[in-house]
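WARN no homologs supplied; continuing
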Amino acid sequence: MNKIGISYRISYAVALALRYIPDVQRDFHNIAQSQQARGIDMSRNEKLSKRIKNASLIIIPLILSSLDKIETVSNAMELRGFGKNKRRTWYSETPFQSRDYMTIVLFVAILVITLVVTFYDGDRFYNPFK
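OK structure emitted
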């Protein structure tokens, strides 16, 4: 995102948000299972007011664990000087050399050969004894 002109702060925020969505889902699932093991019922059999109260027993620990993770990440970012400069500095950025292009061409050739062998033979795997 940074190469297309978006601020690195916004890019990093989006990347972090997308990175932690599966973690929050996993934490929600684990907390919900823990609460269900303790006898908390979240099904439609309960009254709406009881379900809201039971949902708060899942949401509050989820928020607290998420805030703990946010604090850890923000401390790490602060210790590394994130956001100190207006533009991001890169540790190293090396341009492609001829051997890099040759490696890419070699791997594309190997990919094409394997696809041709796979589809020519009509099987998912190459079997020389067929």
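Residues 117 and 123 are 9 Å apart (CA to CA).
OK
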